[in-house]
Write a structure and sequence with these properties.
33% of the residues lie in helices and 23% in strands. By secondary structure, the protein is an alpha+beta fold. It has an eight-stranded mixed β-sheet with strand order 1-7-6-5-2-3-4-8, sandwiched between helices. β5 and β6 form a beta hairpin. α2 packs parallel to α3.
Length: 173
């Protein structure tokens, strides 16, 4: 309800325990979580970022993803539409893998999974990773704590990642 209270009293920034909400703190928190994956990779620990979105075009977040790839973080992206990452910027480190799946139906699920040192964190979101969604709109990213739902999200991502019918590999070559 605190998110909706903001619309009536938009001079008060809500204090939220679990939700990540833009324009308040989404950029900062997502950057922090990516930095945590970078730190784990540099220490030789398991580190991955798996993201399913419709659009990825925020310059600052893309720079963070490049940095994570260079540090050795495994990054797998399923991006349906706008995609501003380029494999030309991947010199060393783990390559960022990306596919796009476009089918008959517009599909809106947004799934974000971080390794979190071997104890994965799962999120669903209303936001694509566009500058307007981080800085100018009210968007919500919600953690998923239920193990059954986490397994479902992991399965949805895995099925999409293995697609060999509609998937296009996003690569410059």
């Amino acid at each position: 309800s605190k998110v909706f209270d903001f619309f009536e009293n938009n001079y008060r920034q809500p204090k939220l325990k679990h939700l990540i909400v833009s324009p308040f703190d989404m950029r900062k928190k997502i950057s922090h979580i990516i930095n945590r994956e970078i730190s784990a990779a540099l220490k030789g620990k398991e580190a991955f970022i798996h993201i399913k979105l419709n659009n990825l075009a925020d310059e600052d977040i893309i720079k963070k993803l490049y940095k994570a790839g260079l540090a050795g973080v495994e990054i797998k992206l399923i991006v349906r539409s706008m995609f501003s990452l380029s494999d030309e910027n991947q010199n060393g480190g783990k390559p960022i893998e990306a596919i796009s799946i476009v089918d008959r139906f517009l599909e809106h699920s947004r799934i974000i999974i971080f390794s979190n040192g071997g104890s994965p964190k799962y999120y669903i979101s209303s936001a694509d990773w566009l500058t307007r969604n981080f800085d100018h709109r009210v968007e919500t990213t919600c953690p998923i704590y239920d193990k059954n739902l986490q397994n479902e999200l992991k399965g949805i991502f895995s099925i999409g990642w293995r697609d060999n019918v509609k998937a296009r590999i996003l690569k410059n070559s």
